[in-house]
Structures are given as structure tokens and as C-alpha cells.
Specification:
This protein is of the alpha+beta class and 218 residues long. It contains 6 helices and 9 strands; from the N terminus they run E-E-H-E-E-H-E-H-E-E-E-E-H-H-H. Bound molecules: iron/sulfur cluster (SF4). Iron/sulfur cluster binds next to loops. Iron/sulfur cluster (SF4) binds next to loops. Keywords: Heme, Iron, Iron-sulfur, Metal-binding, Oxidoreductase.
Length: 218
């Protein structure tokens, strides 16, 4: 990662040419027309390639390293990830725009995003939020999840996709939104205090045991 004001990831070295990618922070994947226009304008100007990522973001890649500071300035946006081992993303479903939603969890997701995005934790962490038990966006593969149901909210923990896939465990269900937020806060507090450097939340839960983890949280 190129640090400082011009965060970018080295993507490829081909025939000695280094190209970089950047991912601006787009909370929940909801983007205004104006911001979208800004991104396409910058991509066009700097010969970028836009990729819609699985994390509800837009990656702009194929960029020259020297252009990155100008690009960030023209975008006027924050990078989605500033440091490794932080809360990298809060992914959310369209909830209030979906006929199946039991609660408009976009607000829940935005509150979580405001509170936890960029927070330092033992290992990279994702949060998932969904408006019904369909859990669109793969909430059960996220480290922390909040899902609305007819009877209240569920909070999940320990999900992971990738190298060592793990399905999240349901920590509590049938609580109101406020209580769900409190549980999420407790999960982060415990994980920050007891997780080992580089240890995913799911691995921490497996190390101490689900029962003990639940006892600590509840
Ligand atoms: S999780 Fe439920 S509310 Fe959200 S998009 Fe999927 S079906 Fe709709």
C-alpha cells in the first residue's frame, strides 16, 4: 500500500510498469449520482479501469502511482482502508427498498459504519447488515453481523470467507436494535482486548470456545 495522502495498492508489474488500484470509501455501497460521476470522470481522465467489488465498493485500477495524489484530491473522498487490521467495511443490503425487509436496517448499517469503520482490531474485520433472514450480502460470512427478523434482531459473530472459511455463530436473537448495537459493542470490546495480533474473530471464538464467548458477551 502507498501510504500518506495517496493510498493505493500495487496491482501489477508488467514489463516493468507498475499499476495501482484505489478504493474510495462508499458507506454501505450507497453512492450519489454526483459521486459516481466524479469517479467515472477521474477513471476516464487517468485511464482507470472500474471494478465493482464484492465488498460493495468501486475499485479504480490500472492507475499510475504518480497520479494517485491528484486522483485523491480530485475525488475528495477517503480511502476505504487506511491500515491493515482495522474494520474495513460495513456491507448492507438495500433493506428499506426491499419488499422482504422486516426493518429498515440501512440506518442500522450506517450507524455501525460511522462507529466502527477504520477502528483498529486484531485482524481485518467486516460487518454485515441485512433487513431479513435471507441475509443478502453474505452476512454469515462476515466477522460481525446484524440481521433483522420479524421477532427482532439477530447478532452473529465469527464469520469469514476466504482462506479459512467459517460460518458465523448466532450470538443472540430477538433483541431490539438498541440491544443489538450494545452486543456488537461488547463483541468488539472483548475481541480488541483478548484477540491475538492477526487473529480473526472466528479463530478467537474457536480458541476460547463458543460457550465461553457467549458468556462473556451476554
Ligand atoms: S436480506 Fe432481505 S431485506 Fe435485505 S435485500 Fe435480501 S431479501 Fe431484501
Amino acid at each position: 500500500m502507498v501510504s500518506g495522502a495517496h493510498h493505493g495498492n500495487l496491482q501489477k508489474i508488467r514489463n516493468g510498469r507498475r499499476t495501482f488500484g484505489i478504493t474510495p470509501h462508499i458507506p454501505g455501497g450507497f453512492i450519489t449520482i454526483e459521486t459516481l460521476e466524479k469517479i467515472t470522470k477521474v477513471a476516464k481522465k487517468y485511464n482507470g479501469v472500474i471494478k465493482i467489488t464484492s465488498g460493495q465498493r468501486l475499485l479504480i485500477t490500472n492507475l499510475e502511482g504518480d497520479d494517485l495524489p491528484k486522483i485523491w484530491e480530485e475525488l475528495g473522498m477517503e480511502p476505504a482502508v487506511k491500515k491493515q487490521n482495522t474494520v474495513k467495511n460495513v456491507e448492507m443490503c438495500p433493506a428499506g427498498y426491499c419488499k422482504r425487509s422486516k426493518f429498515n436496517t440501512i440506518g442500522t448499517g450506517m450507524k455501525l459504519s460511522k462507529k466502527y469503520q477504520y477502528m483498529e482490531v486484531p485482524c481485518r474485520t467486516k460487518i454485515g447488515v441485512a433487513g431479513c433472514r435471507n441475509a443478502c450480502g453474505g452476512v454469515y460470512s462476515k466477522d460481525v453481523g446484524v440481521i433483522a427478523d420479524k421477532t427482532g434482531f439477530l447478532v452473529t459473530a465469527g464469520g469469514s470467507a476466504g482462506h479459512n472459511p467459517r460460518m458465523a455463530d448466532i450470538i443472540i436473537q430477538d433483541v431490539d436494535e438498541k440491544e443489538a448495537m450494545k452486543i456488537v459493542d461488547k463483541i468488539f470490546g472483548i475481541y480488541k482486548e483478548e484477540g491475538m495480533p492477526g487473529e480473526k474473530l472466528g479463530d478467537y471464538i474457536d480458541r476460547i470456545g463458543l460457550k465461553e464467548f457467549k458468556d462473556k458477551v451476554l
